[in-house]
Design a protein that fits this description.
8-stranded parallel β-sheet
Length: about 350
């Protein structure tokens, strides 16, 4: 039996999309400068604290740009201590494979999925963020073959808990040229996460978008702790002092790894999806850093889900700046938290 797929249309390759919607020289220069600064943080040459912060999903361009412009104002107050990389996540994993899959799939939540329109929409939105705020952003690399559509724009990628065991995600992460955060898997096994970092930091040769390619490895691949779910479906955190000690020991045992780094995701299973807990968790992590110089050196940042309005809503409710995926901290709490973190650093 032949494959049961309907081929709808041939999509433009990333090179064509980049030519149709190019970055001008000034925006390229912004990205190059930010990438260099971020690399220094991972290499231990800059002691600023990373804050990867923003909506769970970037579902509405106007609201996202509103949020990013607010973030840029706060950034000016804390930039000596904190380096902000905004989250602009436009493709979302779905546990059961159904539901809203992000702006890439559905640029207008009131209409059917349209992947060509989605590719154009996410590139346009990311470009607007750079133009209006000077930020270059973070995305989840949910689909490794799609990364090239935004590879000249992004400054950070995350490989999600469901993807981190996948060989293609690991080896593509070895060639992205920017930091790649490898999350612990949903079951929480640190060894899986560490193996994924080893794979991403290693030179690789593989098939990518119809090409035989090779990479030199990504020295900025690192760990993201996001909590886990046990075999009974119960949520557990893994950001505590003892967890951080364990990851530090694993890094020390894996002598082939460079730039040992942990970013702590303060939401997901670390908060049990209780989004307000992100405030307490963030401060708890800074307390752990103050009590252990090894942890302080290794834990280089936080990942926080934040938007304009507290919580989340269902698609169709139409509340401006409120998440339609996971619940997020609202803007007032976000601004207060960023300023408090800067005071604690």
């Amino acid at each position: 039996m032949d494959m049961q797929m309907e081929f709808i249309r041939k999509l433009p390759i990333p090179k064509d999309i980049k030519e149709m919607y190019p970055l001008d020289a000034s925006l390229k220069a912004i990205k190059e400068e930010r990438d260099a600064q971020i690399a220094k943080i991972f290499e231990g040459k800059d002691d600023r604290f990373l804050l990867i912060i923003g909506p769970c999903s970037a579902d509405n361009e106007d609201a996202v740009l509103d949020y990013m412009n607010r973030l840029a104002v706060v950034n000016e107050k804390v930039k000596d201590k904190i380096f902000i990389i905004p989250r602009v996540y436009t493709n979302k994993p779905r546990t059961k494979g159904v539901g809203y899959k992000g702006m890439l799939h559905q640029p207008d939540t009131n209409k059917e999925e349209d992947l060509l329109a989605g590719i154009v929409a996410i590139r346009a939105m990311h470009t607007r963020v750079i133009k209006e705020t000077g930020f270059t952003c973070a995305e989840e690399m949910l689909y490794p073959s799609n990364h090239r559509y935004l590879s000249d724009i992004l400054s950070y990628i995350a490989v999600g808990a469901r993807s981190v065991e996948d060989q293609e995600h690991r080896i593509v992460a070895s060639g992205v040229g920017i930091p790649a955060g490898m999350k612990n898997p949903t079951a929480g096994d640190f060894s899986v996460m560490m193996n994924s970092i080893s794979a991403a930091q290693s030179a690789q040769k593989f098939i990518y978008r119809g090409w035989e390619v090779k990479t030199n490895g990504n020295p900025l691949a690192h760990a993201i702790l996001r909590g886990y779910v046990d075999h009974l479906g119960h949520s557990h955190p893994n950001y505590h002092y003892e967890d951080l000690e364990t990851v530090y020991e694993l890094y020390m045992k894996n002598t082939d790894l460079v730039n040992p780094t942990v970013i702590v995701d303060t939401n997901h299973n670390n908060s049990g999806k209780r989004y307000l807990e992100q405030i307490r968790i963030s401060k708890d992590i800074l307390h752990s850093r103050r009590n252990n110089p090894d942890i302080s050196k290794m834990v280089k940042g936080l990942m926080i889900e934040s938007y304009i309005e507290d919580g989340c809503q269902k698609i169709g409710e139409g509340i401006y700046g409120k998440s339609i995926t996971d619940p997020c901290l609202g803007w007032e709490k976000t601004e207060r938290l960023i300023l408090e973190l800067a005071d604690l650093l």
